[in-house]
């Protein structure tokens, strides 16, 4: 869910929400004063369901980021000012504006948008998911193509038989038969559905049962 965190007025925040298409009539807005008045029991849930936060301080931004992280949300934070730096550092991924952003903001961020175009974030998300998927495909292919040779060599060792392949032959097979296909899997282009896939868990392994 996209959220707006701003120190501006409610009217300005609402106008921004409309301009980026998140004001669908069911938008939830919360001021900094209302945010600080929330009880701890329901605070995280209310923050996760709120679209726009207005009249908030830099400390409020940090608390919102931490609250979302506490409920296992993957948080990406964008900003361009000095007052955004700490919140950028607190998020999983801090994104700073390269042209209009301050030095402190860019130093705290993980990603700097050199063109100050928010749409570039979508390209970065797609590229990141594609790289992870390609790594998975590469490793799975290498493991599956090597498992046969591993089984044969292991059986020969256990049964005290002469291995059918020596080390040079195995290396040659890996270079000629496994290398090019594995490399092609590692540079597969991005698919359209990569952009809109749900964020993967930070604990997800490259190799799993699937």
TrEMBL record:
Alphabetized SUPFAM superfamilies for the sequence: HAD-like
The organism's place on the tree of life at top rank: Eukaryota
One GO CC annotation: membrane
Ranges for domain Cation-transporting P-type ATPase C-terminal: 163-209
PANTHER family associated with the record: CALCIUM-TRANSPORTING ATPASE (PTHR42861)
UniProt organism field: Henneguya salminicola (Myxosporean)
Any GO molecular function: ATP binding
Xref: InterPro entries: ATPase_P-typ_cation-transptr_C, HAD-like_sf, HAD_sf, P_typ_ATPase
Pfam families: Cation_ATPase_C, Hydrolase
Name the UniProt record assigns to this protein: Calcium-transporting ATPase type 2C member 1 (Trinotate prediction)
């Amino acid at each position: 869910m996209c959220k707006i965190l701003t120190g501006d007025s409610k009217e300005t925040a609402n106008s921004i929400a409309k301009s980026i298409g998140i004001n669908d009539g069911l938008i939830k807005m919360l001021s900094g004063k209302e945010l600080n008045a929330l009880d701890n029991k329901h605070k995280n849930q209310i923050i996760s369901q709120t679209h726009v936060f207005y009249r908030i301080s830099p400390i409020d931004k940090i608390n919102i980021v931490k609250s979302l992280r506490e409920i296992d949300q993957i948080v990406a934070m964008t900003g361009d000012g000095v007052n955004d730096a700490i919140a950028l550092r607190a998020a999983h991924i801090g994104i700073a504006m390269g042209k209009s952003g301050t030095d402190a903001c860019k130093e705290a961020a993980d990603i700097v948008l050199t063109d100050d175009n928010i749409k570039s974030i979508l390209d970065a998300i797609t590229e990141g998911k594609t790289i992870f998927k390609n790594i998975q495909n590469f490793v799975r292919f290498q493991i599956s193509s090597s498992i046969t040779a591993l089984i044969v060599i292991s059986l020969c060792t256990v049964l005290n038989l002469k291995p059918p392949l020596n080390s040079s032959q195995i290396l040659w097979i890996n270079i000629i038969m496994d290398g090019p296909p594995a490399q092609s899997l590692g540079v597969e282009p991005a698919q359209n559905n990569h952009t809109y896939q749900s964020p993967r868990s930070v604990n997800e392994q490259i190799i799993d049962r699937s």
